[in-house]
Each structure stands twice: as structure tokens, then as C-alpha cells.
Design goal:
42% of the residues lie in helices and 15% in strands. With 627 residues, it is an alpha+beta fold. The strands form seven sheets. A four-stranded antiparallel β-sheet has the order 3-4-7-6. A four-stranded mixed β-sheet has the order 5-8-9-10, with helices on one face. 40% of the residues are buried.
């Protein structure tokens, strides 16, 4: 009989004891750290959920940082925009004031205030967060707007707005100070007024003439350049008879001159004297009409026209998105023969139609959209060959999306667009396109800023691209797409917010432009028409700073970025809830229950104590005791 060694039993018991000791060590670590293990292998089968949860928590932390940073930018932008609305209110209140007292510089107190507010507005538009300019679009490292002094006064090499405005005023007034109109007396009994050049963007444009003058003959407005005439035909008008002439100003507004025949002495303002000599000489009445008309036109030119000229100069300089040849004109063409909006696109002579005209099968393509001419029954992207020029212009406007309709005036066609850079019109019938006055294809628009095209300005007839010699006021990104999309941030797994802004957005640009016009314009402190000029300009500035239906407002920009902020707030709320849930999953997978660990430790301690007792008994076992 053989007896196994006691050492074998001892080694088994020793291994068991060492195992219990290791378990106790592990449990003690769990109790002190609260974790099931110090490495992934000891975490158990649920550790995969915990790892995924930690990744999501890391993403949420990144989103939280992004939301915090974007909120800083949005809050600063909103503060800046709020400042702009206060500036607008301040200048508008001043421009609406009836006080027109001029200082030695030929400006009112309200204009001085506007000049100061212009500088403030430029400063606001150059707001930064860190090194990022808030109103530069994607060009975040570029100053949004040029310095206020450079914008108004220019630099050593480039002209500022003050120069552009002075050139435009000279071009609109003309050498004779009559708004580029030429007034003559073809006969002793007649008066004639004509525009000085066909197709010129400058000066007063004759819109309509009406008369109740007894025995008189009124001709026009017609011809190229446009003119009208009034012939008394050797007959004195009756007291109270009236001649009315309506003019279109460069800014698109209209003004009317009314002259009433009068026997009163002295002759009332706005009237002309009926000859009362014996015998009566109606030619003297015609001379009086000529003088009164000259006086009225000169006053109109030196008051409302000067104000309108300043406004359009602002458009030429600032409105880089919507103006080209003849702001806000984008492309002006004078057809070989005068046309009107009712002129047909095709027709047999002597009908009112262009020649050569369009025929069925011809096409005209506007910014990539093709319209096809058909004999009749046009639908969709079709035009009838018998449709009018105005119908064609309306279709062009629909495609370009212009905010100002294209027009036909004085035999000239003016195509307007809000994006001069993209304007492109081509046709398969170049002859018909030429009949409309466009001599080359594609028809395009010149990019502003626009300057008077020749010297002296008083006789110029064109506007030209002045970008090479004129200060560029907006320095930021000017690419396609929404300004809001120039700054984007992902704030959740499937949520992106857009919060960009550009200083050349329509609402901001219009305000900056109006304030610059008002604060820069000056006149003679003692001039005959100075008060009328400032009054007419104040009226236009007040209107420009009044929100019109369909126009973008600064408040609209604030609304856009507020929506982005609300989106981030909602995302942050969801993420807070998700963080709590994810942390619960991680805790369940990785945390050790103190009560359970303590219970297991107690059980192991009892087992260890029993193992020690057995080991001790075996250690004392001998052959004698065994037998």
C-alpha cells in the first residue's frame, strides 16, 4: 500500500488560498474605486455598451464646446445688429425733422449727426470675435468694411464716395443747370423742351405732358432724344388754363411742373402772365410761358434732381449687387427706331413693331433659361411673335428675379437685375436683338462701382465700371449663396446651424448707403436752392430708412441667427438628457455595487479562514495520526 504525499494536498489548498486572496484584492480595489475592473478585459460582456457610450459622450462634449463658441459669435452679432437698428432710428429721426438750418459747411445738424453715425456703423460692421470678423462672410480674417474716412474721402489712388457724388451731380445737372434739358423757342408762338442726348442715364427725363391751354397744340413727348413742344398758335389761353409736365428723376421718382395762365398782377408763383397789352399779342404770352417754364425746370433741377442725383450716386457706389449701366439700370439699349412697351416683337410694316423682328422658332436665352417664339398660343417657356416688348421684359424680369422692373422710356430699353454679374442674354436671331438696341451678344451688365464715363461730367452720356479707380467699401466674401451659409457649425449628429452674415446684405447696405448720402451731401450755406436741396434729400433719406414691404430688414437677419440659436438650444437640451442616459449605461456596465462587494468580501474572508484552518490541520498530520 502506498501513501500519497501530504505536499500534494497542501499545494492544492495553497492554490485555493491564493485564489481567494486574489479575489479579496480585486474586491477591495472595486470597493475603493467603485469600478468592476481597471482594464477592459475585466469589465464583462456589457463593456461594449460602455465604450460606445463614452464615444457618444465625447461627441456631446465637442458639440457643447461648439455651441458655446457659436453662441458667443451670435450674441456679438446680435448686439451689433441691434446697434445698427438704433443708428437707423437716430438718423431717420433727424432726416424727418423740419429743421433745415445750414451751418458754414452747408449741412444741417441732422446731417452732421448722420456723418458721425456713419463712422459708428462702419465700426459696428467691423466687429470681431477673437480674430474672426463677423460680417465678412467666409473671409473671416479680412476686415468687413473699409475705413470710414477712405470710403467717403478716398485714398491717394482711389476716389471715395464724395467724388463719385460730385461727378454724378455735375452729370445730372448739366452745364446749363437745367437737368440736361435743352429749352428753345422754335417760333415766336411756341416753346420746345428736349433731352440733350438719347439713351443718357443722366438728368431729367420727360415722362408726359398735358394741357388745357385754349387754342394751344402740344406735341410729344416723342422722338430721340425725347422732346415736347407747346404752340399757342397765336391764341391767348384763358385765365386758369394749365400746362403740366411730368419728369422722371434718376432715382426713379417723378416730379410734375404745373404752370397756370394768369391775368393777376403780380403773377402768382407757378403761373405765367397772359399778355394784356393793347392790342393783345399772344407771342408775349408764349414768351412768358417760356420764361416761367425755364424758371420751373431750373428750380426742379437744382432741388429735387440734385437730391435724386445724390441718392443714385449712393447706389452707383454702394450697390454692388444690383446696379450696372445707369444705376439702378443694368443694361440700357437704344433701338435703331424709337420703341415703346407696346411695340410688337414682330409685325408687318407700318405696324408698331421692331424690324427685323422675331419669327417662330427663334429663341432668346436669359441666364440659361430659353424662351422659344411661336406664331400663337404661347405657353410655358414660349412667347408669341406678336407679343409686346413689355411682355418680353416681364418674362426676362421673372427669370432674373429683379426687384425693380425693366422699362422702356424715351425709346430706350432698360434691363434691371439684382445680380449684375450673372446677367446674360443671347438670341438665335441677332437681327431682332439688334432691333431692340443690343448690338452685341451676350447682353451683359457692367459691374459697379459706376463712374461718370467722360469729362467734363456735365456733358457725359455714359456710366462706366469704376472699380479700378474707386474705393471698394465692402472687403469681405462676396460669392454666391446665402450670407447665412458662410458660417456653419455641426451642433448634433444630424443638426447643422448657419449663422454667417455679410456687411453687403441688402438691409445693411441700404442703411449704410442712405446714411452715407445724407452725411456726405453738402451745399452752399447761402444758395438760392440750398434749402430745397436739403429738404428733398431729407425726404428721400427718410423714405430709404423706412422699411418697405418685400425688402430685407436688419430684424430679418436677427431672426435668422435667433433661429440658429434656438436650434442649438434644443440640441443642447437633447444632449443633456442623452448624457444622463449614457452615463447610466456606463455606470451599470463598469461600476461595482459597494453592498454587493462588501458581501462578497465577507464570504471570501470566511472561506479563507476555513481554508487556513484546514491547511493548519493538514500541516500537523503524521503517519501515526493518519493510521
Amino acid at each position: 500500500m502506498s501513501i500519497s504525499s501530504i505536499n500534494y494536498s497542501s499545494s492544492v489548498l495553497g492554490s485555493q488560498i491564493r485564489n481567494i486572496n486574489q479575489q479579496l484584492t480585486d474586491l477591495s480595489t472595486q470597493l475603493s474605486t467603485g469600478k468592476l475592473s481597471q482594464n477592459y478585459s475585466g469589465m464583462g460582456t456589457n463593456e461594449g455598451f460602455a465604450i460606445a457610450g463614452r464615444a457618444q459622450l465625447s461627441n456631446i462634449a465637442a458639440y457643447t464646446d461648439t455651441i458655446t463658441n457659436v453662441n458667443v459669435s451670435i450674441n456679438l452679432a446680435n448686439t451689433a445688429l441691434q446697434s445698427l437698428t438704433k443708428i437707423r432710428s437716430t438718423v431717420q429721426t433727424g432726416s424727418a425733422s423740419t429743421a433745415q438750418d445750414l451751418n458754414v459747411n452747408g449741412q444741417t445738424v441732422a446731417q452732421n449727426t448722420a456723418a458721425a453715425q456713419f463712422g459708428s456703423m462702419v465700426g459696428v460692421l467691423n466687429t470681431q470675435t477673437g480674430s474672426r470678423y463677423l460680417f465678412s462672410g467666409t473671409a473671416v480674417n479680412t476686415q468687413s468694411v473699409a475705413d470710414a474716412g477712405d470710403i467717403i474721402n478716398g485714398t491717394t489712388t482711389q476716389a471715395g464716395f464724395k467724388t463719385v457724388m460730385a461727378e454724378r451731380q455735375a452729370a445730372d445737372l448739366g452745364a446749363n443747370g437745367m437737368g440736361r434739358l435743352v429749352q428753345t423757342q422754335p417760333t415766336l408762338s411756341s416753346v420746345q423742351v428736349a433731352e440733350d442726348a438719347a439713351g443718357s442715364p443722366f438728368g431729367l427725363k420727360i415722362k408726359s405732358v398735358s394741357s388745357t391751354l385754349t387754342g394751344a397744340t402740344v406735341t410729344g413727348p416723342s422722338g430721340s432724344p425725347v422732346s415736347f413742344s407747346v404752340d399757342l398758335n397765336g391764341v391767348n389761353p384763358n385765365n386758369g388754363d394749365k400746362l403740366s409736365v411730368q419728369f422722371t428723376l434718376p432715382d426713379g421718382t417723378t416730379e410734375q411742373i404745373d404752370l397756370t395762365a394768369s391775368t393777376a398782377t403780380p403773377t402768382p408763383l407757378g403761373s405765367f402772365a397772359i399778355d394784356a397789352s393793347v392790342p393783345v399779342n399772344p407771342n408775349n404770352t408764349a414768351a412768358n410761358l417760356n420764361t416761367a417754364l425755364n424758371t420751373a425746370i431750373t428750380k426742379l433741377a437744382n432741388t429735387s434732381l440734385v437730391a435724386a442725383s445724390a441718392v443714385v450716386a449712393g447706389d452707383n457706389f454702394f450697390n454692388s449687387a444690383s446696379s450696372a449701366i445707369g444705376a439702378p439700370v443694368n443694361n440700357r439699349a437704344t433701338p435703331p427706331a424709337p420703341v415703346s412697351g407696346a411695340t410688337a416683337l414682330s409685325g408687318a410694316s407700318p405696324s408698331d413693331s421692331i424690324s427685323p423682328g422675331f419669327v417662330a422658332g427663334d429663341t432668346i436665352t436669359i441666364n440659361g433659361t430659353t424662351l422659344t417664339f411661336v406664331a400663337s398660343g404661347a405657353s410655358g417657356n414660349q412667347l408669341n411673335v406678336t407679343d409686346s416688348i413689355q411682355t418680353l421684359l416681364s418674362r426676362i424680369d421673372q427669370i432674373t428675379g429683379t426687384s425693380k422692373p425693366s422699362t422702356v422710356h424715351g425709346g430706350s430699353i432698360t434691363i434691371n437685375t439684382d445680380d449684375a454679374a450673372s446677367l446674360s442674354i443671347t438670341s438665335s436671331n441677332m437681327g431682332a436683338l439688334s432691333s431692340l438696341g443690343f448690338s452685341s451678344t451676350p447682353v451683359t451688365a457692367t459691374q459697379p462701382p459706376l463712374r461718370v464715363g467722360s469729362s467734363p461730367a456735365s456733358s457725359a452720356t455714359t456710366l462706366v465700371n469704376g472699380s479700378a479707380s474707386t474705393v471698394k467699401w465692402y472687403l469681405g466674401n462676396d460669392g454666391p449663396g446665402s450670407p447665412r451659409s458662410t458660417a456653419m457649425a455641426r451642433v448634433d449628429d444630424a443638426v447643422t446651424v448657419q449663422y454667417g452674415a455679410q456687411a453687403n446684405e441688402d438691409a445693411i447696405r441700404r442703411q449704410l448707403q442712405a446714411i452715407a448720402v445724407f452725411g456726405t451731401f453738402s451745399t452752399s450755406p447761402t444758395g438760392q436752392y440750398s434749402g430745397g436741396q436739403v429738404s428733398a434729400l431729407s425726404l428721400r433719406v427718410t423714405q430709404a430708412l423706412t422699411q418697405q414691404p418685400g425688402q430685407q430688414r436688419i430684424e430679418d437677419i436677427q431672426t435668422d441667427i435667433a433661429m440658429a440659436q434656438n436650434t442649438m438650444k434644443d440640441a443642447s437640451t437633447r444632449q443633456t438628457q442623452a448624457k444622463a442616459q449614457l452615463q447610466t449605461i456606463i455606470d451599470q456596465a463598469e461600476s461595482a455595487s459597494p453592498d454587493q462587494v462588501a458581501s462578497e468580501i465577507l464570504a471570501l474572508q470566511n472561506a479563507l479562514q476555513a481554508s487556513y484552518q484546514v491547511t493548519s490541520s493538514l500541516a500537523q498530520l503524521s503517519l501515526v495520526k493518519f493510521l
